[in-house]
Description:
Elements: E1 3-8, E2 13-20, E3 23-31, H1 41-63, E4 72-78, H2 82-99, E5 103-107, H3 108-114, E6 125-129, E7 134-140, E8 143-149, H4 155-165, H5 173-180, E9 193-194, E10 197-198, H6 201-212, H7 217-243, E11 247-251, H8 258-271, E12 274-276, H9 280-283, H10 287-299, H11 308-311
Parallel strand pairs: 1-4, 4-5, 6-11, 11-12
Antiparallel strand pairs: 1-2, 2-3, 6-7, 7-8, 9-10
Helix pairs in contact: 1-2, 3-10, 4-6, 5-7, 7-8
The protein binds adenosine monophosphate (AMP) and magnesium ion.
Amino acid sequence: MTIIIGVESTAHTFGIGIVKDGKVLANERDMYNTEEGGIIPTDAADHHRELGPGIYEKALEAAGIKEEDVDAVSFSQGPGLPPCLLAGRDFARDLALRLGKPLVPVNHCVAHLEVGRMTGATDPVLLYCSGANTQVIAYAAGKYRIFGETLDVGVGNFIDNFARYAGLGFPGGPKIEKIAKESTNLIELPYRVKGMDIALSGILTNLRQKLEKGAKLADLAYSLQETVFPMLVETAERALAHVNKKELLLGGGVACNSRLQEMSKKMCEERGAAFFCPERPLLVDNGAMIAFLGEIMFEAGVKVEGEAIEKIDIMPRQRTDQIDVVWKK
Ligand code: AMP
Ligand code: MG
């Protein structure tokens, strides 16, 4: 029996998850929000430091466990916003020291991929669509590999940026999804797939210009989804073909979008692949996925102990493809 605590704090969300033998006992989180504008990293970090202890208490209560039962504390070491990562690192480090338990540093993107196991995926290609990150990731030949990614902004930030320009607040994704349902008028937009990569900033400029010239917001929202989501699905399909895998997994906040889910599912059906999309609490940034991967790594002997805990650092630009993957055989 192993009980692991997971601390997530890479960006807007502070989350505490508790996992026991691969099962989620608790998954508590709180998201930093703004009325207008995007995330201010230091403000988000203040949010994490302020609310962290309360979220932790709630998680312990929801899990019905005592601190003494915990075997290790895992945390998101990177990639992410440095002030936010520091808030989570401090929380996890202090907790590990206080409990006298090891620390397990986890890569955030890999956690999005591995948590797919809970939904039945065993060896998926991950289409990771979050605010800042947009990547196609899969495990191949001993490493997690990035097969494709955005060449400029992340798809969530792209949508949020356009939504902000159109006078909608943050986060813009859910609002764009809702408005898009009011239209079926497809306005042609640039389609930018380069191999397994995509580019979004030119499309953003194009959308802004069309809005200024009087195009209807609903038409643009609809056209945005009908243009950009196929781009994402195309890169994922190319990766599936390239590595000859049979499972697609969605991850990240934009994956909450039902149209993106629908297109992904259809692509999978057409090529005989299985489609997996975790429930919302495991799809967006959360502590449970950190604890889930933390447990797998801990069982494989990956842990930081003793005095080394005090020196553990964050890795804001940690590269997913440079990880020494000792926990997968
Ligand atoms: P993450 O960085 O993974 O937490 O995801 C946050 C991003 O997901 C933000 O850019 C949101 O606008 C976006 N998002 C959330 N819900 C939706 C949705 N239903 N459709 C599109 N984007 C969404
Ligand atoms: Mg994420």
